[in-house]
Amino acid sequence: MKIEKASPDLEAEVIFKGLCAHCGACNCPHIQYQENGEPKILDACNETIGKCYNSCPRTSLNIPELEGKMFGKSREDEYLGYYSKAVLIKSKTPIVNTLIEIAFKNTLVDSYVVPKNQSKKPVNNVPMIISKAKDAPDLTSRNLEYTGPLITGINEAYLSGLKSVGLVGNPCHFQGLAQMSNNDFRTDIQIQSLKIALMCAAGGATGCMYCLDYAGEFSDISISDTGLEKGHAILLVRTTLGQKILDLALNAKNIEIVSESPELVKIQDLAMKKKKNNIKNLLKQQNGKIGYLELDLKNLSALF
Ligand code: SF4
Ligand code: SF4
Fold this sequence. Notes:
Blueprint: H1 7-15, E1 31-33, E2 39-41, H2 51-55, E3 61-62, H3 63-71, E4 85-91, H4 95-105, E5 111-117, E6 125-130, H5 152-159, E7 165-169, H6 171-181, E8 192-198, E9 221-224, E10 232-237, H7 240-251, E11 255-259, H8 265-285, E12 293-294, H9 297-303
Parallel strand pairs: 3-12, 5-7, 7-8, 8-9
Antiparallel strand pairs: 1-2, 4-10, 4-11, 5-6, 9-10
Helix pairs in contact: 4-7
Bound molecules: iron/sulfur cluster (2 copies).
């Protein structure tokens, strides 16, 4: 579906209202990302149906529809989104790096877009494209404490001829990719491969206070190491690709399962608090309306 709106509407409805997640989905030659990660419209284009507007996860986000398209199922867990399996694992190296290494070894990807910290202040991440696992920095949830326009890396990879590109990002990056997959503007995102989300309470963007996704609900596999002992992580497997990377990592003995039915209460509680607080923020900011979110009554009543 395409909405007949373009960059001036993106500015008015998202950027100037402070809703922007600094994700980079609106990437376009008429847009530049500033040092703080926020997009700036450089000049007006002639489009009346803008790729930028239609790619942005903060113009409108129909979560039940996107979920149906991506997974063919709806969530049973209102807080963590749809997943087919949850496991607690142990890994000697940072789990994200382990999965990237396995993905390269098994040619699931020809490259990866990973966050590169460029300063100590928010928003500090820029995309770095790697073609070998050893080029990735150590990737833990600390790397994504602050966000940045990482989706622009997918476009850069596409333009340089890469064919199968993974992404490590915050939940909002995968909301952006889901939104982009739902319109027929973008050819660059057809190269997306294994999407690894690190669970996120806030990432330093102004729009974080209106964000409802803690668990990376539109990734292939989500990871949390919050409050766990070193080397341990909870993985939520959401897609067949997510399951494949888990199986490959287990077969290669790179990781070990500690529990097939891990305690999820802590992360569910964090996700619930984020959703409730940020829905309240949205209602305040949008004068009693729920803003960009399109939730069905079941989703909403489960939260309150
Ligand atoms: S939320 Fe993402 S797509 Fe929307 S304006 Fe901000 S950077 Fe662009
Ligand atoms: S809270 Fe996290 S997932 Fe949400 S917009 Fe901020 S960085 Fe993105």
